[in-house]
Design a protein that fits this description.
Layout (H helix, E strand, L loop, with lengths): L25 H4 L2 H8 L6 H21 L1 H4 L2 H6 L10 H20 L3 H22 L2 H16 L14 H23 L5 E2 L4 H12 L7 E2 L3 H25 L10 H14 L15 E4 L5 E8 L2 E5 L3 E2 L4 H15 L2 E7 L1 H11 L2 E12 L11 H12 L3 E6 L5 H13 L25 E6 L12 E9 L4 E9 L7 H16 L3 E8 L1 H7 L6 H13 L6 H8 L4 E9 L5 H12 L38
């Protein structure tokens, strides 16, 4: 016997199968949307959902604490049932809760364990406050609902803390103090009809500073508004103090650094497999971390910048062991909820990365590689370089190209000091295509080319030294350009002179190939200037030329092209497209183009470690431009 009704409702009533088998379960016949709603959000979506909810509630709470009109609006009537807006001192509590929720939201989105712990403590406290002070069932249930999501999906919040130091406390004090000052000014000025007199900006600032410490300032209010303003300013001051103290006294987790044992293992891998990638030697930067494959036959070096785990170049070691090292890299990124990215890997490296991880790849530019056997100054194509080199030689310049181990300690110290002085910027630049030092005893196979000229009319602290080019080893038969520096009083063309000298001296040093600068977006520049280029390509080229006013994009391409190199493409590997802006910003920080470090008034420019001026945007000179130099 079966029961049926008309329409779609028939599926909701149990039926018996034709063959006598029992009918399907009710849950099997539910629409997909209802089943998904009953199951709740996917576990991997919970951190983003709760973090977004915290951000929304935090902004509403701040608005409720700052603007009196908002507290009496219809919007606030709905929002006041949300966590963080309860208590007898509603304005101050709302403002404090809002700022805490905003601070907490980013950590929750990034699956951070400590942010989860803080939320698990704050949410039940908020639920108790909701019920005790306002008897708000809706607010209590909302707090408990978010708490239930966090507890049910606690396994999603396992990310470890980021590398940090106690400089974070000073950064928090500066940034939080500045934010509190701005919000405090808004609080003081949010009651224009209740202010007694016409206090100026100085009086308002003084009132904010006094309020941070719990004292009454020079601004006077009517109708008891001063209590609301005072509680809000006191809450801001307390938040700034408490968060600063927390950052100052929490256990320190310094950033990863390359240990002596790690460097020794990497050098052993490079001795066998160093000829595969021209960027391999740059893995020996001592401000990088490293993960090795289980077999120890491959490694990936990285640096964490703004939550992005940046690797540079291809993995080091045996290609067969690359997947193991890449897996360890991805495990480390997942453990800390870092965004994985690779800058400047080769085509082979990009294929392995994308195959093993499911990441995507995008061509970033091309590396200029000169085969020494094919290089010659003869011919019409090399006329400009040939004429420039001859002109400089007639002006009295001479060159020397030597292994770093063949220099005396006095010469090494002089070159270090000159390179630091001629750097041209307050901060060092470079990451994946920079070594970060010059003349280190461990880098004896590096090649240093120098230009000299005796000038009787000018006394220099570096003697007759006028320009420096530093190459690092690329296997046993290659070298890769690391930095180019020159005295600003020297004649133009120093870089061309030293590159030609290095290429001419390469056979005697056993060098068969030389990696020069990296040209970003070279293919777009080259194709965009040819006949028949489409409108989109031409527009893209015009944009790159425009950006070359600030970044040496076109000039590096033209400078590299002078030496008739072959071009090897380089790629950036990323998880998804929306991560690209964040990865780009982190890469610019790593390369030294963006410096978010706090100023240190008593810091002096260090002269010992001198890396390549830049990497992906340019392994270029810090002089008057690559072409003019």
């Amino acid at each position: 016997m079966s029961a049926t009704v008309d329409g779609d409702k028939s599926g909701l009533i149990p039926t018996r199968a034709p063959d006598g088998a029992p009918g399907r379960r009710l849950s099997d016949r539910m629409p997909d949307r209802i089943r998904r709603l009953l199951r709740g959000p996917r576990p991997e979506a919970v951190p983003g959902l709760v973090g977004t909810a915290c951000t929304f509630v935090g902004l509403i709470d701040i608005a409720a604490g700052v603007f009196p009109r908002f507290r009496h609006s219809r919007m606030h009537t709905i929002v006041e049932v949300m966590p963080g807006t309860t208590g007898p001192f509603a304005a101050a509590l709302s403002l404090s809760a809002g700022m805490l929720l905003l601070l907490l939201a980013h950590g929750i989105k990034r699956h951070k364990r400590r942010a989860w712990r803080a939320a698990v403590i704050l949410l039940p406290a908020g639920a108790v406050a909701q019920f005790a002070y306002r008897h708000s069932v809706v607010g209590t249930l909302l707090s408990l609902a978010l708490l239930a999501l966090l507890l049910r999906h606690r396994a999603e919040f396992a990310a470890l803390p980021d590398p940090r130091s106690r400089w974070r406390a000073l950064a928090n004090f500066v940034l939080m103090g500045a934010g509190s000052l701005v919000v405090g000014l808004i609080v003081v000025s949010a009651h224009p009809h209740k202010i007694v007199g016409s206090p100026g900006l100085t009086d308002r600032l003084e009132h904010v500073f006094y309020g941070f410490f719990g004292f009454e300032g020079p601004v006077r209010y009517a109708d008891g508004v001063s209590w609301t303003v005072g509680y809000c300013l006191g809450a801001l001051g307390l938040l700034t103090a408490v968060t600063t103290v927390y950052f100052a006294f929490r256990p320190e987790h310094p950033a990863a650094r390359l240990t002596e044992e790690d460097e020794h293992r990497l050098r052993e891998l490079l001795a066998v497999h160093g000829g595969r990638d021209s960027l391999g030697h740059f893995a020996l930067r001592r401000d990088k971390g490293v993960v090795f494959s289980p077999s120890g036959k491959a490694a990936v070096c990285y640096r964490v910048v703004s939550g992005v785990m940046l690797a540079g170049g291809d993995p080091i070691g045996d290609v067969e062991a690359w997947p193991g090292a890449i897996e360890r890299f991805m495990d480390e990124a997942r453990a800390h909820s870092w965004t994985p990215a690779v800058m400047g890997c080769s085509e082979t490296g990009g294929e392995v990365w994308t195959r093993e991880t499911g990441l995507d790849a995008l061509e970033l530019g091309d590396e200029a590689v000169v085969d020494v056997a094919d290089f010659s100054l003869t011919g019409r194509a090399m006329r400009n370089v040939r004429q420039m080199v001859k002109r400089i030689e007639r002006a009295g310049y001479r060159t020397r190209v030597r292994r770093a181990r063949d220099l005396t300690p006095e010469e090494v110290e002089q070159i270090r000091d000159a390179a630091a002085q001629w750097r041209g910027t307050d901060t060092e630049r470079g990451f994946s295509m920079a070594l970060g030092r010059i003349g280190d005893p461990a880098d004896g196979d590096a090649v240093i080319a120098t230009a000299h000229k005796t000038d009787d009319n000018w006394s220099s602290p570096y003697g007759d030294l006028k320009a420096i080019i530093h190459f690092v080893p690329w296997g046993a038969d290659g070298m890769s350009l690391e930095l180019m520096r020159r005295d600003r009083t020297a004649d133009p063309g120093m870089n061309e002179l030293l590159i030609v000298a290095a290429l001419q001296a390469a056979p005697a040093l056993g060098i068969d190939r030389v990696s020069l600068n990296f040209a970003m977006f070279r293919s777009a520049l080259a194709r965009g200037e040819k006949i028949g280029a489409g409108p989109v390509l031409r527009m893209w080229r015009r944009l790159l030329v425009f950006l070359s006013r600030w970044f040496q994009i076109e000039s590096l391409y033209k400078f590299n092209a002078k030496f008739r190199p072959r071009w090897e493409p380089r790629f950036v590997v990323f998880r998804n497209t929306r991560d690209l802006p964040r990865i780009g910003f982190a890469a610019m920080q790593a390369e030294g183009f963006v410096n978010l470090a706090l100023p240190r008034p008593f810091a002096r420019r260090r002269s010992a470690p001198v890396p390549r001026p830049c990497a992906h945007l340019a392994r270029h000179t810090q002089t008057h431009g690559a072409g003019a130099a």
